[in-house]
């Protein structure tokens, strides 16, 4: 009986963990853009990101892309040593570990004009 109870408990925790995962569209309805200069710092400050959440970056590929970069490259808008590059216009980024993550648009002037995102991902 105890083994059955343990199994049921593990299954319930697994289901609860999966159901708690959130999907965030970066910039909400504006998406990942320069139009109307969305405030991505403000956007991120209204969220609490957890491991296994997902970010969705939506944008026009002829104008934007997404690069995951280091803190240094984020601060200085450097694009020459990206950790990852996304360019589909509907990019899904799974947050697989806790920590600080930094994203920028690599097109000239976009990052320095504010098209960049810093998030902190927490343990579940």
UniProtKB/TrEMBL annotation:
Residues 1-16 form the signal peptide. Keywords: Copper, Electron transport, Glycoprotein, Metal-binding, Signal, Transport. It holds the Pfam family Cu_bind_like. Residues 22-123 form the Phytocyanin domain. PROSITE patterns: PHYTOCYANIN. One of its GO terms (cellular component) is plasma membrane. InterPro entries: Cupredoxin (IPR008972), Phytocyanin-like (IPR039391), Phytocyanin_dom (IPR003245). GO terms for molecular function: electron transfer activity; metal ion binding. The keyword rRNA-binding does not apply. SUPFAM superfamilies: Cupredoxins. This is Phytocyanin domain-containing protein. The lineage of its organism: Eukaryota, Viridiplantae, Streptophyta, Embryophyta, Tracheophyta.
């Amino acid at each position: 009986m105890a083994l059955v109870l343990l199994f049921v408990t593990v299954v319930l925790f697994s289901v609860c963990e999966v159901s708690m995962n959130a999907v965030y569209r970066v910039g909400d309805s504006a998406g990942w853009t320069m139009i109307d200069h969305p405030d991505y710092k403000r956007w991120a400050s209204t969220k609490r990101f957890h491991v296994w959440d997902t970010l969705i970056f939506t944008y026009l590929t002829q104008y934007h892309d997404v690069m995951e970069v280091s803190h240094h490259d984020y601060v200085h808008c450097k694009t020459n040593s990206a950790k990852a590059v996304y360019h589909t216009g509907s990019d899904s980024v799974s947050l697989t570990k806790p920590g600080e993550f930094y994203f920028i648009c690599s097109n000239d002037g976009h990052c320095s004009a504010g098209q960049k995102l810093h998030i902190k991902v927490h343990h579940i």
